[in-house]
Design goal:
The protein has no helices and 11 strands. By secondary structure, it is mainly β. About 35% of the residues are buried.
Length: about 120
């Protein structure tokens, strides 16, 4: 069973930074695109970013000021979030793609990590 575990969330002041990690267990991350999503209180879940299995192709939502990267040797994908704003508050999830490219959709999901941006 594919398992993903997010970490790195927390409370940060506006303008601050966080780096989220998405660690995989039970499978090798190399073969899958990985996406980051978020859900703010009272809102629907939205896509944030995605990276192909090779790391060559990355996609970002228009509002994003973040950088996605992956280290397949560590079986981990990262989301570096800078210049955080209050509207970035929410639960952040990572998900494994159904294939090597982001457009193929997503299957297994992590449990999420809370990000709160507040002074």
């Amino acid at each position: 069973q594919l398992q993903l575990v997010e970490s790195g969330g927390g409370l940060v002041q506006p303008g601050g930074s966080l780096r989220l990690s998405c660690a995989a267990s039970g499978f090798t991350l190399d073969y899958y695109a990985i996406g980051w999503f978020r859900q703010a209180p009272g809102k629907e879940r939205e896509g944030v970013s995605c990276i192909s299995s090779s790391g060559i192709t990355t996609n970002y939502a228009d509002f994003v000021r973040f950088t996605i990267s992956r280290d397949n040797a560590k079986n981990t994908v990262y989301l570096q979030m800078n210049s955080l704003k209050s509207e970035d508050t929410g639960v952040y999830y990572c998900a494994a793609g159904l294939g090597k490219r982001c457009l193929m959709g997503f299957g297994s999901w992590g449990q999420g990590t809370q990000v709160t941006v507040s002074s």
